[in-house]
Write the structure tokens for this entry.
Amino acid sequence: MSIVTDVRYYMLGLRATRQGWAAKVQAEIQEIRHLHGKIQDEQRGIERVHASAKDSNDELRSITCSSEAERGARALQSSTKKSLNTAENINSDLKVTATAARDQTITILTDILSLLRM
């Protein structure tokens, strides 16, 4: 074989490798979008729980009844507040995790794309 033929085969191999990597990067991007969608669904679910807990807390504040029932309502209100705080913490953690995952993914994909352009 001549040098020209060898170079041609080498260039074809590089192009195929680059196209393979590009396809893998696209698949990773789709997977990340899918996971981001799942995280957003989880956040919406937690926000619904948060809203429900807040509504329950508001309802409990408006209850006026006997002292025994009032003690029970206070205990339930305290429990609801704890649930509300937990839901807020989980929601906050999910937002931080989603942002960190997105940022890290963008960095990785940018590095891969810059390598593919070489």
In short: The radius of gyration is 27 Å. Residues 3-117 form one domain. Residues 62 and 117 are 64 Å apart (CA to CA).
